[in-house]
Amino acid sequence: MMDLLQRAIPVFALSLLIEWAAYRFLGDHDERGEPKMGYAVRDTLTSLSMGLGNVLINVFWKAAVLGIYTALYLWTPLRLPSSAWWVWVLLFFLDDFAYYWFHRISHEVRLFWASHVVHHSSQHYNLSTALRQTWVPMTALPFWLPLPLLGFEPWTVLLAQSWNLLYQFFVHTERIGRLPRPIEYVFNTPSHHRAHHGSNDVYLDKNYAGILMIWDRLLGTFQPETERVRYGLVHNINTHHPVGVAFHEFAALWRDVKAARTWRERLNYLLRPPGWRPGQDG
After folding, report:
1. What is the pLDDT of residue 37?
2. Most buried residue, 21, 26, 118, 200, by most Cβ within 10 Å?
3. Domain ranges, residue 167
4. Apex CA 203: angle with CA 200 and CA 207, to 5°?
5. Is 23 exposed, middle or buried (0-12, 13-18, 19+ CB in 10 A)?
6. What Rg value do the Cα atoms of the chain yield, rounded?
7. Which residues of the chain have pLDDT under 70?
8. How far is residue 95's CA from residue 215's CA, in Å, rounded to a whole number?
9. pLDDT of residue 35
10. pLDDT digits (tens, 9 = 90+) for 118-177
11. Mainly localized where (predicted)?
């Protein structure tokens, strides 16, 4: 089984050094004279710690996922040959569509947000932010289960997930401005993803793309980068402790569920969007 992410670790490390050097020697302001966030030691160390924890957890979790995918693949009568070029094209689009919905639900359902919020917890935006990943990766599982059921070989599904995340690493930067219009229209770019990481009202719950921006455009969740992005959360957690970053929202969710007065409220806390409170309709 190929794990592109583990093999790409040296590339990640080199890219971080190059980006840091760009801030150090080429300046930290954009073409409009506005400051870029750059790197901060404690923030970067937290992101690297979260990334290392994610890698270690996924050593075991991906083995479990492979077992689940294999069981589904053996159960279904459908078979898509990995030797056929069109299977890889189809897999590219279906994997990216699955990622869109996983990412969107991770923002719209608080139980999933409790895992994903880790990635948005930094108030800086650089390549190290891409490594700030969850220690509870299990929430992603349901969204890719249809692929082995459709007959995709399990290892190809894991490979597609890896190349999607590998691509996304490189959009976490302020060093690249807007790209040519055709690229900006079709693909997720640093500009689009900067907007996604913004806590500004205009940017909330927008730009869920993995590789292709077409899903956001078709489904009404696209927002171009228009105003200066304010990175982080609506209510920032103000901690660099990896355990606090990893589990703070699960702890807050547990407190809300425990204090709820009815089972309906408990379910709403779990399944409604972040910030929901009793008496609200949405």
Report:
1. 72
2. 118
3. 4-271
4. 155
5. middle
6. 19
7. 1-2, 28-35, 281-282
8. 12
9. 64
10. 999 999 999 999 999 999 999 999 999 999 999 999 999 999 999 999 999 999 999 999
11. membrane
Q: How do the residues of the chain divide into helix, strand and coil, expressed in percent and rounded to 5?
A: 60, 0, 35
Quick one: tokens of 98?
A: 């699955």
What is the domain count for the chain? 1
How would you label 140-165 residue by residue, b for 16+ Cβ within 10 Å and e otherwise? beebbeebbebebbbebbbbbbbbbb
Q: Which residues of 48-59 are buried (b: 16+ CB within 10 A; e: fewer)?
A: bbbbebbeebbe
Name 160's Cβ contacts closer than 8 Å, sequence gap at least 6. Answer: 91, 92, 95
- Residue 278's identity, in one-letter code, is P
Percent of the chain with pLDDT over 90: 89
Is 110 contained in some domain? Answer: yes
Q: Is 195 exposed, middle or buried (0-12, 13-18, 19+ CB in 10 A)?
A: buried
Is 278 inside any structural domain?
A: no
Over 33-61, what HEC string results?
CCECCCCCHHHHHHHHHHHHHHHHHHHHH
CB contact set of 121 (below 8 Å; sequence gap of 6+)? 132, 232, 233, 236, 237, 245
Determine the Cα–Cα distance for residues 248 and 83; give it in Å rounded to an integer.
45
Dihedral of alpha carbons 153, 159, 163, 165, sign: positive
Rounded to an integer, what distance in angstroms lies between the CA atom of residue 140 and that of residue 99?
Answer: 9
C-alpha to C-alpha distance for 114 and 94, rounded to whole angstroms: 25
237 occurs within a structural domain: yes
Length of the chain counted residue by residue: 282
Q: What is the rounded CA–CA span in Å between residue 107 and residue 91?
A: 24
Supply the pLDDT for residue 30. 57
